[in-house]
C-alpha cells in the first residue's frame, strides 16, 4: 500500500512539474522587420501590433529597421534580416534575378505612387510631362510607377528627364528644382496642400493596376520556421484590422514613433494615415479578406514590367505569392 501511495505521489509530482513547464512563458522569438523607409504613419499596423501586445501574444519580439529598401530584399533572402515591408514590383524584380523572396500579406491593396506637380506648372496629364524634369529616388516603387505611366501615356523615356532627388520630393518641388515629383498619393500631396501649395496629381492607378507594398520574407525562413511566419502574419493582420476599426486610437499610437512632430505636422500626418487606410482595401480584399492580393494582378504586373524592360523573365506566381498564412 505504501509503495502504491509513493508511486501515486511521484506521478502527481511529475504531472505538476509537466504542467508548470507547459504553462511557463516561453522566451520570445527575436526578429527584425525592415520598414524600408523612415518612421511613418503608413506603418501603423505594425506599430499597433507592438503597442497592443499582438506581437507578444504570438511570442515575438520585433525590432523595426528603417534602412532604405535598396538592399532589404537581398538581406531577407539571405537570412541576414527576417522580414521586410516592400513593394510587389520589388518582389518581381528580385525573383527575376533569382533572389528567393516571397510576398505574404498585402498592406496597400492599390498601388499608391503618383506624379505631383504645382497647379501652375501646366502639368495635368502624363502627356504634359514631355520635356519636363521629374524628381524621384531612381530605384524602387516610384521609379517603376513613373516608367509605367510614361509608357502607357505613349511617351518614350527619353521624352522625360528623370532626376535623382532621393526622398526630397517636397523641398525639390517647392524650390523649383524639378517640374514634378513622384511620391505616394497619400503622403506628399497632403503635406503640399497644408503648405498652401495647389497641386495637380497624376495617379498611377489611372494608367495600370500593379501590386502594392506588403509583408515579405525569404523562402528559407518560410521552410525552416513556418510557425514563426504564421505568428507574424497573424499579429500583423490583427494590427491592420485594429487600425482600420480605430483610426484615432491608431494615430495616437503612431505618434509614439514620431516624437519630433509639431502640432501642424501632426494634423498632416493624421490625414496621411486616413488616406493610407483607403488604399489598404479594395474590392478584392473586401471579398477575400484583408491582406489578400489577387494572383491575376501579379500576372498583369509581370507583363507590364517585361514591357518596360524592368525584368528579363517572368516567374510563376505560386513561387513568390504565398497567402496561406492568412486566415
- How far the N terminus sits from the C terminus, by CA atoms, comes to 54 Å
CATH class of the largest domain: Alpha Beta
Described by the principal axes of the CA atoms, the overall outline is globular
| SS elements, strand count | 10
Largest sheet: 5 strands, mixed
| DSSP helix fraction | 40-55%
Instruction: Determine the mean pLDDT.
Output: 89
- How large, in whole angstroms, is the Cα Rg? 23 Å
CATH architecture of the largest domain: 3-Layer(aba) Sandwich
Strand order of the largest sheet: 2-1-3-10-4
Give the low-pLDDT segments: 16-25
Total count of helical runs of at least 4 residues: 15
H and E order: HEHHEHEHEEEHEHEHEEHHHHHHH
Strand content: 15-25%
The CATH homologous superfamily of the largest domain is called Periplasmic binding protein-like II
State the secondary-structure class.
alpha/beta
The fold-level CATH name of the largest domain is: D-Maltodextrin-Binding Protein, domain 2
When the domains are counted, the total is 2
Topology overview:
Layout (H helix, E strand, L loop, with lengths): L1 H22 L5 E6 L9 H8 L2 H4 L2 E6 L6 H6 L5 E4 L1 H9 L4 E6 L6 E6 L14 E4 L3 H13 L8 E4 L4 H6 L5 E5 L3 H7 L4 E5 L10 E5 H6 L1 H20 L1 H9 L7 H17 L3 H6 L6 H14 L8 H4 L7
Parallel strand pairs: 1-2, 1-3, 6-7, 6-8
Antiparallel strand pairs: 3-10, 4-10, 5-8, 5-9
Helix pairs in contact: 2-10, 2-11, 10-11, 11-12
Which key features would you list for this structure?
alpha/beta, 10 strands, globular, D-Maltodextrin-Binding Protein, domain 2, 2 domains, single chain, 5-stranded mixed β-sheet, 327 residues
Amino acid at each position: 500500500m505504501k509503495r502504491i501511495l509513493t508511486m501515486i505521489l511521484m506521478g502527481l509530482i511529475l504531472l505538476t512539474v509537466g504542467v508548470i513547464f507547459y504553462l511557463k512563458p516561453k522566451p520570445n522569438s527575436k526578429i527584425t522587420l525592415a520598414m524600408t523607409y523612415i518612421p511613418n504613419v503608413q506603418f501603423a499596423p505594425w506599430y499597433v501590433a507592438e503597442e497592443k501586445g499582438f506581437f507578444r501574444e504570438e511570442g515575438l519580439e520585433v525590432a523595426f529597421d528603417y534602412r532604405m529598401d535598396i538592399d532589404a530584399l537581398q538581406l531577407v533572402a539571405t537570412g541576414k534580416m527576417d522580414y521586410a515591408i516592400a513593394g510587389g514590383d520589388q518582389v518581381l524584380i528580385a525573383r527575376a534575378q533569382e533572389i528567393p523572396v516571397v510576398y505574404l500579406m498585402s498592406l496597400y491593396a492599390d498601388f499608391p505612387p503618383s506624379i505631383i506637380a504645382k497647379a501652375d506648372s501646366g502639368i495635368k496629364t502624363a502627356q504634359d510631362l514631355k520635356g519636363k524634369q521629374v524628381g524621384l529616388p531612381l530605384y524602387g516603387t516610384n521609379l517603376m510607377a513613373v516608367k509605367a505611366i510614361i509608357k502607357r501615356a505613349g511617351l518614350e523615356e527619353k521624352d522625360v528627364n528623370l532626376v535623382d532627388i532621393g526622398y526630397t520630393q517636397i523641398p525639390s518641388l517647392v524650390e523649383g528644382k524639378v517640374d514634378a515629383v513622384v511620391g505616394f498619393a497619400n503622403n506628399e500631396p497632403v503635406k503640399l496642400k497644408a503648405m498652401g501649395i495647389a497641386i495637380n496629381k497624376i495617379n498611377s492607378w489611372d494608367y495600370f493596376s500593379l501590386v502594392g507594398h506588403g509583408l515579405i520574407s525569404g523562402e528559407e525562413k518560410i521552410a525552416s520556421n513556418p510557425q514563426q511566419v504564421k505568428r507574424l502574419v497573424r499579429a500583423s493582420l490583427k494590427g491592420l484590422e485594429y487600425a482600420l476599426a480605430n483610426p484615432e486610437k491608431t494615430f495616437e499610437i503612431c505618434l509614439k514613433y514620431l516624437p519630433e512632430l509639431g502640432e501642424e505636422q501632426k494634423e498632416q500626418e493624421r490625414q496621411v494615415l486616413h488616406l493610407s487606410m483607403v488604399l489598404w482595401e479594395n474590392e478584392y480584399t473586401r471579398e477575400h479578406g484583408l491582406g489578400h492580393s489577387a494572383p491575376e494582378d501579379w500576372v498583369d504586373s509581370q507583363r507590364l514590367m517585361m514591357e518596360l524592360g524592368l525584368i528579363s523573365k517572368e516567374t510563376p506566381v505560386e513561387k513568390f505569392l504565398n497567402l496561406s498564412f492568412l486566415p
